[in-house]
Amino acid sequence: MGVLCSYIVQKQKNWQREDISHELVYNAVEHCVMPQIKPLIIRRVAQTERDELVSSKCLEFSGVTQDQLRVRPCLRSNEPVPFIEAITQLR
Fold first, then answer.
1. pTM
2. Residue 75 domain-assigned (yes or no)
3. 58 near 81, Cβ under 8 Å?
4. Residue 15 is part of which domain span?
5. DSSP for 54-69?
6. Neighbours of 5 (CB within 10 A)
7. What gap in Å lies between CA 71 and CA 79, rounded to an integer?
8. Pairwise CA distance, residues 54 & 91, whole Å
9. Which residues does 82 contact at the CB level (< 8 Å), separation at least 6?
10. At residue 62, what are phi and psi to the nearest 5 degrees?
11. Tens digit of each residue's pLDDT (9 = 90 or more) over 45-60
12. pLDDT category, 91, cuts 50, 70, 90?
């Protein structure tokens, strides 16, 4: 999404000769464009069997703490589901 926002900012600068905030564009894309295309993306990437496998593995290992895995304190996650972004990228 960052690449899209950078592209929009650059095009606006070229067309209108004025700068707009990258953050402003990012928020607009996030609130206007993403809700429109998210269902399409989800349908395209849905892998029900693999999603169920990942979900079952997450549940299976949900009792394991970051301390037990010897994750250094500076690298620990405070999220309700630690490292969910990394887990989803493993798909």
1. 0.37
2. no
3. yes
4. 2-46
5. HHHHHHHTTT--TTTT
6. 19
7. 14
8. 8
9. 66, 76
10. -65, -20
11. 777 888 888 888 888 8
12. low
**How many domains are there within the chain?**
1
Give the CB-side neighbour count of residue 17, counting CA atoms within 13 A. 0
CB 25 within 8 Å of CB 1: no
Q: 86, 81, 90: which is closest to 61 by C-alpha?
A: 81
Q: Which helix (H) or strand (E) holds 19?
A: none
Residue 40: inside a domain: yes
Tokens of 11: 């095009």
Say if 27 falls within a structural domain.
yes
CA distances from 23 to 31, 33, 62, 72 (A): 12, 15, 35, 32
**Cβ–Cβ under 8 Å, residues 82 and 58:** no
Residue 42 domain-assigned (yes or no): yes
Taking residues 64-88, what's their average pLDDT?
A: 81
Distance, in Å, from the CA atom of 39 to the CA atom of 35, rounded to the nearest integer, reads 8
